[in-house]
Amino acid sequence: MQFHQSWPPEAREYLSNAIQAHGGWHSWEKVESIHFKLKILRGALVFAKGLGRTFFAPETFRVSPKQRKVEFFYKNSTDIFENGKIIYSPEKKIIEDGRLIFKKTTIEQWYPEHAAYFFGYAWTNYISYPFILLNFELLSFKIYNNRAAIFKIRFPHNFHTHSREQTFYFNQEHMLYRHDYRARLAGPFVFGAHFTQEYVLSNDIQIGFIRKVRPRIGPLVLPTYGIYGEIEVLD
Q1: How many C-alpha atoms does 65 have within 13 Å on its Cβ side?
Q2: Distance in angstroms (rounded) separating the CA atoms of residues 55 and 113
Q3: Whether the Cβ atoms of residue 149 and residue 141 lie closer than 8 Å to each other
Q4: 207-231 as b/e, with b when 16 or more CB fall inside 10 Å?
Q5: What is the pTM of this model?
Q6: CATH architecture assignment, domain 9-233
Q7: Domain locations in the chain?
Q8: Are 130 and 199 in contact (CB under 8 A)?
Q9: HSE on the CB side for 18, CA within 13 Å?
Q10: Quick one: which of 16, 14, 27, 3 has its CA closest to 207?
Q11: 53-111, pLDDT tens digit by residue?
């Protein structure tokens, strides 16, 4: 494993243990793609953006994390996210950089191309954590309650993700259970705390099957759901 130069020895050791808890580096290197069924997708944010009206949840989706690619399978078409590029609709329309189609306002309605980009980079990253964190700049690291830890990471400008600075929380078993970010494409005041639950070993790595994203005001996490999702592995 090759860490970014910003990582001190203590942080490297902790993340190495976290990677082992999530299945280990050798298992991660073998992962090519994972096919999921989206069992549940709901919440205030996706409803406000148009879920079920201007865009729809896919029947299944396949994540190829090393290629940074997600295929969203619908009844009559397949939409594709590939490291920022979007191919969508039965006509296979192409958008070279999905970031450019967002107005980034609270009231903006999303369409299939918006959903392909937003959920494309999101699922690519979620399935890749914590394995890819060592590639990026570490801003701060803290161990508390003996073995729990908090990492603050800064991503590069060209990396497709929610926001450049994000915070990752690991519990005493070294499992990632919370992930804070600003969902800048969804609006200027959309700050989320993403809770991951129900880890299951699949493809020899641990994958969280329940995702709860709650709105956040500073350190205060609100009780409502911005996004609630449940997935299962199909093969």
Answers
A1: 21
A2: 9
A3: yes
A4: bbbebbbbbbeeeebeeebbbbbbb
A5: 0.96
A6: Clam (2.50)
A7: 9-233
A8: no
A9: 28
A10: 27
A11: 999 999 999 999 999 999 999 999 999 999 999 999 999 999 999 999 999 999 999 99
